[in-house]
Amino acid sequence: MSETVLLSSDRGAVRILTINRPDKLNALDAATLDALQTAFTAAAGDEGVRVVVLTGAGPKAFVAGADIAQMNTLSPVQGRDFALRGQRMMRFVETMPKPVIAMVNGFALGGGLELAMCCHLRVAADTAKVGQPEVNLGLIPGFGGSQRLLRLAGRAATLELCLTGAPIDAARALQLGIVNRVVPAAELEAQTMALAEQLAASAPLALRGVLDCINHGGECGIEEGLAYEAAQFGLMFATEDMREGTSAFLARRKPAFTGR
Ligand code: COA
Hints:
Strand content: 15-25%
Oligomer: single chain
Structural class: alpha/beta
Low-confidence stretches: none
Number of helices: 10
Mean pLDDT: 97
Helix content: 40-55%
Number of domains: 2
CATH class of the largest domain: Alpha Beta
Radius of gyration: 19 Å
Distance between the termini: 29 Å
Bound molecules: coenzyme A
Strand order of the largest sheet: 1-2-3-5-7-10
CATH topology of the largest domain: 2-enoyl-CoA Hydratase, Chain A, domain 1
């Protein structure tokens, strides 16, 4: 991974990835997209990592969008390839076998909101602003924004954000279901890490089962979704963590999950 555009550090079982282009408000150029793909692939395959927190460097931005300077000169074919490059990485994140939390520390615009939306949970600072401003550039969302925002917040909010291009504040984003929690900016890191540590102490195979059911079930009919859930539920009975979790409850003690 390029250490210049993406920083990685571990706190226990929580991997923290920080997009590190603060002078460009962490805009996503091709190198940053590739660094994210590499970093998430490594985190997915590392048994020591149970949760990933994704954020942006500096006080102003999570990510202020795809890199406009880089897009300015692209041909149509290169534009499509750029969209596919971002979409592939974001779909990888969405289908990760462990939870990914976006810690939205400022602007999450265009590709920045798209990146936050492919994460499983979003905790935003009360100072954050989110939006899909692509139309202001004569563009449309290209990293899945029109599709994920629709699924998260419905047609009315998606049409409003994508057609007007106007950003909204964190409180409105919470109201629309685009972010899960809004916290004072000064508490963002502590509250996000508390959530990450809570998930890191949970049963990883159960978390994976939940992620699989929601990823799969969100895109199929109710019968297929329910059958998939029942199959995943049954699979849990093959895990040591299920025996441990239920036994700990019955013995009135805290469970110690191992991921087996
Ligand atoms: N791509 C490339 N560079 C970007 C960028 C982006 N999406 N967003 C910000 N930057 C760069 C600016 O060009 C500037 O670089 P410079 O100092 O070399 O000129 C630097 O980041 C700081 O941005 P600036 O615009 O000066 O900060 P601001 O506080 O005045 O405004 C924003 C902040 C977020 C409102 C503004 O940067 C903005 O509108 N960015 C684009 C948002 C967007 O349209 N995203 C969707 C892209 S598809």
